[in-house]
Amino acid sequence: MGVEDPFPGQCLTSNIPFLHQRLTRRVGAGKAAVEPCWRTFRLPDPWLPFLFPGLPPGHGNSHWSYAGKDKAEWASDFPHCGGHMQSPINIETGAALFSPQLEPILLPDYSLPPREKLRLQNNGHTVVLDLPRNLTLTGGGFPQPYQAAQLHLHWGSALKPGSEHTVDGHRYAGEIHVVYYSSHFDTIQEAQVEPGGLAVLAAFLQVGSEENEPYQHILDHLNDVHEEGEETWIPAFDVAMLLPDDLSRYFRYNGSLTTPPCYQTVNWTIFNQTIQLSPDQISLLEDTLHGDEDELIQDNFRLPQSLQGRSVLASFPMLHSPEGAQPPGKGACCWA
Ligand SMILES: [Zn+2]
Predict the structure, then answer these.
(1) Structural domain boundaries in the chain
(2) I want to staple 225 with a disulfide (CB 3.0 to 4.6 A). Which of 74, 102, 122, 200 is the partner?
(3) Catalytic residue selected from 20, 59, 63, 125
(4) 125 is known as an active-site residue
(5) How far is the CA of 222 from the centre of ligand 1 (A)?
(6) What is the pTM of this model?
(7) Chunked in runs of 10, what are the mean pLDDT values of the chain (336 residues)?
């Protein structure tokens, strides 16, 4: 897209690492001459390190996966992944510190017109919806606004849930991450390597009885991007509707990207109220997208990382019952 091919006539010019790898394999099998050229999948270079977090700036051939062995070895290729402020974490509600400075999160003017189109993409690890930077995040105790970059999802499989963060050891069916970067920076590439340069809003997905209409805006198009590297443009909608109604109750801590290169620059906000999707919607998420080696993308979550002395703050005081604190839920029955 908009990047001139320096090697016309050849097909090994994709700037997307996993496509490059796939093409290399096909050349090795002697099939290159009959394969369609993948140059159509070139992306603007500034987006690469973020949309494909396994691609450190200036290194076009790095690769990572969620497979157990690979995950344990992320730090050997991406040193930040072995740092002391990694994400996700298990949130111990009993240890969270109430902070009155944590004001409600504000997401003004998110109702985008359907004539505006947003890019939806399968990056081989998840489904990513690009967001316009004029969607801002304010409040939340942040000294400056953040501007939107993208959102994506994490999920499990029919056998196990797949949220990244856990609460008192409980893992939810899935998790949405809306990624922002500080308005102090012109690009997310600059922001993501600076302390506090990124902010991510996270909410847990649970199985409920009813279909969640806002999520259908994305799920309706999953089949259009079921292969790794595919993208489509979908009508814009109010993406704030993908988050809980209650944006005032949340947990906050300093952590990292949960995928390589694991930069430790993220202000995490994890909402207390969860989001309900129908069983069919959760199943569609778990059983549609394909990634590396054409395998289903499932269990695309990283295991909880050690807190290493970090504090987890809560924007609300908690009432501790004799049975102990309840994990977040739709009703949020047991919080103050
Ligand atoms: Zn994520």
Answers:
(1) 1-42, 49-314
(2) 122
(3) 125
(4) yes
(5) 17
(6) 0.80
(7) 35 39 35 34 48 41 74 89 97 97 97 97 98 98 98 97 98 98 97 97 97 98 97 98 98 98 98 98 98 94 97 88 49 37
